[in-house]
Amino acid sequence: MIEKKISIIIPVYNCEKYLDRTLSSVINQTYKNLEIILVNDCSQDNSLSICQNYAEKDERIKLINLSQNEGASNARNIGIKEARGEYIQFVDSDDYLELNACERLLEGIDNSDLVISGFKESGIIETKFSNKEEKKYNLKEDYCTFFELVKNRQIHNVWNKLYLKSKITSGFDKKITIGEDVLFNLNYLKNCKDVFVIKDVLYNYDYTNLNSIMHTKNRETQELLDYWDEIYKFCEGYFVGKGYIKSLNGTFIKAIMAQIMNLSLKEKKGYKNYRKIFLSLRKLPQVKEAFKNYSQNVFINKSWLQVKLLFVTFKLKLTLPFYIFTKYRNKRLEGK
Q1: Is 63 helix (H, G, I), strand (E, B) or coil?
Q2: pTM of the full predicted structure?
Q3: Which long-range contacts (CB under 8 A, 24 or more apart) does 180-188 make?
Q4: Per-residue pLDDT tens for 276-323?
Q5: DSSP string covering 259-285
Q6: Is the separation of the CB atoms in 285 and 333 below 8 Å?
Q7: DSSP string of 95-137?
């Protein structure tokens, strides 16, 4: 029996500190029929040299050295174009796989078009995002499961999944700087019938490398709104019926709350300027419309009480309690 090949695409940018760990986790997979595509996006550190050393030792590695830095989306698109495997997998150059990741993902893709695994997020705070059960879904007819996956951050990224190359008809949009993974996944889902979800935590996401491709982004409000406009369009054309709208509106409100927190963390604003940001986003027509018909189920998690209090302060435009909670949250993220 001929084993099918998985093409693993790894964009590389200024990650010399983490790259050995990443590549070691890939070349030592229990499943061996791999094509490993390293796309060096003009790294300024020793990343290229590390890639060259690995490529000399492992014939499965194909190294592509770009002459101009254009970001992760461009690097991934080049990787997809060069890939010769039946399946596509993505890994970021500062993260790493469990050694049985490829094997388990491949087992799950039989009779399905996409496999999604759990993952672990590591940094100052370590969090596992695992799925409750191992099951096949038709998400087009099951919006509740789709938004459960969204709430558990299983749709947000491309690196905890295995794709069929034949069903990738749209690459990553190079013009956008946020949400490119989500939009890639939504475009892919249009070509899918069944999605298989496995419980195993197979991917380790490390967000401590501030120099990586994935940490050099600015999240502007208008870009965020444009991104959500695309998500609303997708849901309208994808799901059967209109039952999804409450969950979608609730998820949008949650994203706007996160935007306020992210802006405050990035810009370290005092209360006066923070209040201005809060009110400008809370008064957006899109937010007002979402509050007319929403579901709070998208907020329910292990920290449900804290999140509910935060949600209420946002709904009632109580800027000071929201500000205090955000300051506390940001100190935790910074490890203070």
Answers
A1: strand
A2: 0.90
A3: 180/72, 180/73, 181/156, 181/157, 182/155, 182/156, 182/227, 182/231, 183/227, 183/230, 184/158, 185/155, 185/158, 185/161, 186/155, 186/230, 186/231, 186/234, 186/238, 188/114, 188/163
A4: 889 999 999 999 999 999 988 777 665 667 778 888 899 999 999 888
A5: HHHHHHHHH---HHHHHHHHHHHHT-H
A6: no
A7: -EE-TTHHHHHHHHTTT-SEEEEEEEEESSS-EEE--SS-EEE
